[in-house]
Specification:
By secondary structure, the protein is mostly helical. The protein contains 6 helices and no strands. The longest helix is centred in the C-terminal third of the chain and has 23 residues.
Amino acid sequence: MNVKLAAQIFSNSVAAGLKYYREYQKVPELENSLETENFSNLFNNIFDALNRKFPAEGIRQNSKDFKVLEDGITFINSWEQNLLDQKIMESEFLTKQTADGLRVTMKSTIELAKYLLQSGFRYVLSNKMNQDRLEVIY
């Protein structure tokens, strides 16, 4: 699977398209798509925070990326709680490995970025902390 292509479904442009066709074109099949729009925006922002490549966009003190990643953890925890409370079925949630992996990735990025910034780094390029380069090989 090409992760880059798969992740593009969770983008601001997909969210904007859902909103446009729901609100302005009144497509009946998209009447209840607000949560999907919100989900796409949230994960777009999470992926952006985890893929900062250039110094100008790097994570800095008081960066909004910290809140984005914290919100992502909160969202996954809440979503999982809905599963535990039997408000949703198991098929409506992530696998345990995926949920745990996302939480660990977001939390470790937050903690490492804070540590590096407190240690004198001016910014952190979160793209350097992921496995994208390995995925290109396989």
